[in-house]
Design goal:
Elements: E1 2-3, H1 9-22, E2 29-32, H2 52-61, E3 66-68, H3 72-75, H4 94-97, H5 101-116, E4 120-124, H6 128-140, E5 146-150, H7 170-175, H8 178-191, H9 197-208, E6 214-223, E7 237-245, E8 248-256
Parallel strand pairs: 1-2, 2-3, 4-5
Antiparallel strand pairs: 6-7, 7-8
Helix pairs in contact: 5-6, 8-9
Length: 257
């Protein structure tokens, strides 16, 4: 289970799923590494939370068998010149807004897979694009690893659990619940028979706009397999959003049934 630390209840669910798949004879490993390659210049890399003792206790209480916490110099040589890059799924959504981000993700995940040699790895569906890209990388590079997606874990008010939620002020936190409401609005429209992607996207954007402190990066309706934008909604459609509240950028998504 690869993580960047600052563990919370969504990580606990990932550990539970990993333990279930490992069975009584298997082991669960958690890695914690704040990967510098995933952060663009001027982002929150230096400020990203690193509660090492709390995370260690979290893993101990969750009966994790192995906690792997490498330093940056343990994974990256100063003169490194080799990277892993997926070139299709990473060109949209987060990849479009954060150039180079998924090259960093693929590079570090590939290294972690090589070091720890797991039989399976678990990833949350909140980061839907990341999950799709890791699956593509595993397929294309013939990693003998099963990739397991785990449904998004949410707070009681619907906000997707994220380490970045702790950055939100009380007012930002209150308004951030609009993301889930907006996504549910889009899903309700699709269930009611709406097939126009443009109309659903417009409604989602309008709903998010009800939160005056929200700044929309993107609201896109895409094919859940290719992640390419679509005009007509099908059962394999995904609405993905990225919205900032102050300096805190949140993402979420919903599959349209």
């Amino acid at each position: 289970m690869p993580t960047m630390g600052a563990l919370h209840k969504a990580h606990l669910e990932l550990i539970r799923v990993a333990s279930e798949h490992a069975g009584k004879d298997g082991e669960v490993a958690v890695s914690i590494f704040v990967n510098p390659l995933q952060f663009e210049p001027g982002s929150d890399y230096e400020k990203y939370p690193r509660p090492e003792k709390t995370d260690e206790e979290f893993c101990r209480n969750a009966s994790v068998d192995l906690l792997f916490r490498p330093a940056a110099e343990d994974l990256y040589f100063e003169d490194r010149s080799t990277y892993v890059e997926e070139a299709s799924l990473s060109s949209v959504l987060e990849g479009k807004s954060r150039p180079g981000h998924f090259r960093g993700v693929c590079t570090v995940v590939a290294k972690l897979f090589n070091i720890l040699a797991p039989d399976a790895a678990v990833f949350g569906e909140k980061d839907f694009q990341q999950l799709a890209i890791v699956r593509r990388m595993v397929r294309d590079l013939n990693f003998k690893i099963d990739i397991i997606g785990v449904p998004t874990v949410r707070e009681d008010d619907g906000l997707a659990c994220s380490s970045r939620n702790q950055y939100l002020t009380a007012e930002y936190r209150k308004q951030a619940t609009i993301l889930r409401k907006a996504l549910l609005k889009g899903a309700d429209m699709a269930r009611a028979g709406e097939t126009s992607a443009a109309r659903i996207v417009s409604a989602v954007r309008e709903t998010i706009g009800q939160a005056p402190l929200a700044r929309i990066d993107y609201v896109d309706l895409v094919d859940a397999q290719t992640l390419q934008p679509i005009e007509v909604v099908s059962q394999n459609s995904l609405v993905a959003v990225a919205v900032s509240f102050g300096k805190t950028r949140l993402i979420d998504n919903i599959l349209l049934a």
